[in-house]
Structure formats: structure tokens, C-alpha cells
Amino acid sequence: MDNNGSTDILIPPAAKKAKTQPPDDSFDIKAVLSDEYKKDITLIQVHSSQVESKQQLQAVIQELAQKLPHFQHLKRVHDRSVLICPTADIKDTLEQHLKLHKISDNVLEALCRNVHVVQVPASCARLRVQYEQMIKYWPCKFHPDKYAESLQNGSNFTASQRAYHKRMAQLLRSLSQDVNEGQPVGICVDPRNPSIVAIAAGGSSGSSHQHCAMWLVDHVARSQRGGAWQTQLQFVEDEPSPTSTLRGLPRPYYDYLQQQEACRDLQFGAELPRRGEQPVADDQQADNLSKYGPYLCTGYDVYLLREPCLMCAMALVHSRVKRIFFLEQSDDGALATSFQLHSVKELNHHYEVFQFTT
Ligand SMILES: [Zn+2]
Question: Could you tell me the pTM of the whole model?
């Protein structure tokens, strides 16, 4: 290329430096669903009987529904074959089992004439993909769950939500590498704006009390004028408005992000707790965070470099976190690797879990 003026005008202007970081396509996001949403279905063996007449069939169905009420997820009759009970339930013979359950003589006789064993799905279908597998074995009842389907096929996030989650994954990497010597990092986000509420880092000591999720919960508490743990870290103490605060953000991480050209458009800060205010209740769709203001991690998303251990995962349950996103699986991880804490029905709070996949 020569330097004379006539060619200069043909040179395209230098591309403007991208204001926002382009979404990283080297990884994606998948929901970590509990076993009941897995594609593979479980089958059980069941005694079935071909009933000869329509009249008999009616009597059989009525009595079975009362005395052996199994298989709520299945159609009890298919081609005049009736499901009686799982073979595993029978201690002695089928006839004795039916007598034990006070099945009347004429129904017992009708049932014991053409008995055979069939394989049927052990539980109800949660997803259409499971339903389609199941009906190959036996007709099933199915109530489609649109949200579960969207989690399974990834359509639950809009393109911009997905791009934001991926940016947080990139931030976890860069904050860990550039500010925390490769140690784990966690970010808590209020997804309404979205806005970064708190950032925390795990120590290298290995003590589970020093894990970054534990620190993150404490830093979120700082943003609500709480926080119990002593640390040498300096925090941003500014309150940019009467209703929001940067108190959950340690200086080194906040300053680092402020210096990054690609992070200029990110929002920071947490809403301050609303003391004594009436809940905003006009919006039926509003979640508790919108209605009542911040309380623990209610309504917040947590992004973690590493899958949390059981203690951290439990701390995040107690904190009422809305969703957890993590980047790397851990040997003692309690959300995907060794356990799925979020699928334990007995817990009084359940968050959704997503994993960034490469
Ligand atoms: Zn932990």
C-alpha cells in the first residue's frame, strides 16, 4: 500500500473498538435437571391379564381401582389387557395376593385366566421425549410442562439473557486469572437490571469455610448492611443512589472491571433493603425480590467458577438463591458431579442449576 492521498480514501476506517464484549461461543449453557427429567426411562415388570368380555372388564377395573390402586401414570387397560400389580409386590402367588387384597371371586377368576408379565414405565413422563419412549411400552398419561421442556431444549433464555450469562462466565475466568491467582471466584447478580451485587473469591487454604460461595453469601449480606466475616479486603463503600449500594463489591475486583473497556456497559450495585415499606403488589407476576426488596439472596443469580461442595450448595439453599450457574465441575461438587442437591424434594427451597459447557 502506498502513502499517496488518493489511496488513503479507499482504506476503510479502522473498526471501532467493540463497546461490548462479543458473546463467547466457545461454551454454551445447559440446565442440570434431576433424574426424573433424564431421557432414559425406567421400566418395571407388571402382571397383566387379558379379560375376555366387556362386562367382566368393567367389574375388574372398578375393583382394581379400589383395592389395588396402582399405576396412576398409566392407562390401566390396553386392548382388553389390564394391569394388575408389579411382580415385585407379590410374595407368594398372584392368586394369594389378590385374595389378600379382598378381590371378589368372580374378578379373581377373570384376572387369573390369561395372566402374563409386561414391562411398563415405572413413573410418569415429565418431558415429551420421555413420553414418546414410554408409549412404546404401554399407553401413558402425560401433562406437558412447557417450562420443563424449555429448560431441556435450552429455549428458556432469550438471546440477550444467554449472552449475559456467558459474559458472566467469561468474567469468572478473567477475575480468577487476573485478580485471584487462579483461585475460584463467584459473582452474584440481581437479574432484574441485570446488575452485579457482589463478587467474592475463595482462598487457597482449602478450608470449606473459606470457599468462595460462603464468602459470596457474606458479601451479599454486606450489601444489605450485614455481613459477619472479618476480611482484609477493601470494599467499595459508595452508595450511588439512595436506594442502591456497591458495598458488596471488593475494591480489587471492582477496580479491575472498571478498567476493562469490555466491561464499560456492565451495571453494578444492589438495591438497599426496603425497611418498613409496603410490598409492591400490583404486579401479579412479580417475584419476592421485586415485591419486598432484597432479603438474603432471594431472586439473585449466582455464578461460580467451580461447582460448589455440599456445604456451599446448602448455604446457597439457605440463602434462597434463584439460580446457580457454574463453569467447572468439582470432584466434591454437589449439583452435578457427586450429588444433585437441587433435586432433593424435602428441601424447603429449590434453585435452578445451569452448567456452562465447553
Ligand atoms: Zn464449598
Answer: 0.81
